[in-house]
Amino acid sequence: MSQAFVDLRSDTVTRPTAAMREAMRAAPLGDDVFGDDPAVNGLQEKIAGLLGFEAALFVPTGTQSNLCAILSHCQRGDEYIVGQMAHCYRWEGGGAAVFGSVQPQPLNHHSDGTLALSEIEASIKPDDAHFARTRLLALENTLGGKLLPFDYVQQATALAKKHGLGRHLDGARLFNAAVAQAAQTGGSALAEAKRIAGCFDSVSVCFSKGLGAPVGSALCGSREFILRAHRIRKMAGGGMRQAGMLAAAASHALDHHVGRLAQDHALARRLADGLAGIEGLQVETPQTNIVFVDLTGAAREQSAALLKHLAGRGIRATGLYRLRFVTHLDVDADGVDRAVAAIREFFRR
Length: 349
Ligand SMILES: *Cc1c(COP(=O)(O)O)cnc(C)c1O
What we know:
Layout: E1 6-7, H1 18-25, H2 38-51, E2 55-59, H3 62-73, E3 78-83, H4 87-90, H5 95-100, E4 103-107, H6 117-123, E5 133-140, H7 150-162, E6 166-171, H8 174-185, H9 189-197, E7 202-206, E8 217-221, H10 223-235, H11 244-256, H12 261-275, E9 281-283, E10 290-295, H13 303-312, E11 315-316, E12 318-319, E13 322-326, H14 333-348
Parallel strand pairs: 1-11, 3-4, 3-5, 5-6, 6-7
Antiparallel strand pairs: 2-8, 7-8, 9-10, 10-13, 12-13
Helix pairs in contact: 1-11, 2-11, 3-10, 8-9, 12-14
Bound molecules: pyridoxal-5'-phosphate.
């Protein structure tokens, strides 16, 4: 079936499926601020169990989840080591600094998304009154659609542990990472998710991205850690009441939408393959569900015109010199082919 719009701006744009809406409608509800919502409690137990943690906390957004995590790991005057392009450094309004007086120590990424182990080690400050106290390493997987190599994740988190740092994973797209990793190892996606999560003291996952739920993220950690995060969630205004309707959607997504992420990855490759060889476009081979396309040479100034051309054909994307196309539950092969055809049409003119 041909869709009216092919929305490739983000995997956050998905609408709940009919089955997900039914799960939401049927959710048993209570007041979660009193700890009474069965659907929220069930989701928290489910995600904690899946990822191998003692406890979890349902939060409205990934941003709040990362904030609760950083403020639970760190005190005022502490710092966290993080990548320049990491969401919890670059894209969250400086929340850890604003609300927690926690200073970031950003490091540059290698092209594969990793931070050099030597730079992580060198940025850990000695115990000296001149310095902020280095307390935490925060990684992100996937980062810009890239799967961090698992042996790197093991090495970086082991290094952090050796120096007594906490280890947080912004796993907004952890299940995309797990599905991509499973394709390499032959393991199951859930087993790979657990293996990645097992390297960290806390993990945040988004249900509102490729998993297709309308709203919500979860923060996982030890029982004691989640108690601290729970207090911070309250301070941040994230204590929700009959949130079980949202938790039920997230729970449905965990049950039904993890394996299908492989389809999103295949569609991202289809899109990248379809754009190969167009003069002025440099297409990065996608590892998961995000395709980055750099406009080069004379095409460099044409992104606004291209996006307008696409919008006129019902195709939505974002970017300036670097366009981003994200595949998800509400995009099919026909939609991808329409996007490819429209982009090719633009460059033929
Ligand atoms: C989307 C995203 C978040 C959080 O997003 P919200 O819009 O606040 O839910 C955090 N980290 C990464 C890597 C993300 O992609």
